[in-house]
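Please, structure for the following, as tokens.
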Amino acid sequence: MKNTVRLQFEIPQDRLPALDALMEDAGIKTRTELFNNAMSLLKWAVRQRKDGRVIASIDYDGDSFRELVMPILEEIERPHTDSRVSVPLAPRA
């Protein structure tokens, strides 16, 4: 049997509908599953930022992107400070 730890935290009650909607949109059945997915994504984003990468959403129909801006990612020092980004877009299949 795995060792487990129970985590308990508080969020404002008015944020519960957004949390439940996110779980429904993603097909997530439990808050543990939501937490595990969120941790996986955040761990990946932190690692990418440490490697000097930009976390972004790319529009395949054009040549634009939107960088993910989060306070936690802003705190991570990147190896270089050149903020210019050139993103070659792959043709849509």
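The mean pLDDT is 87. Residues 16 and 22 are 10 Å apart (CA to CA).
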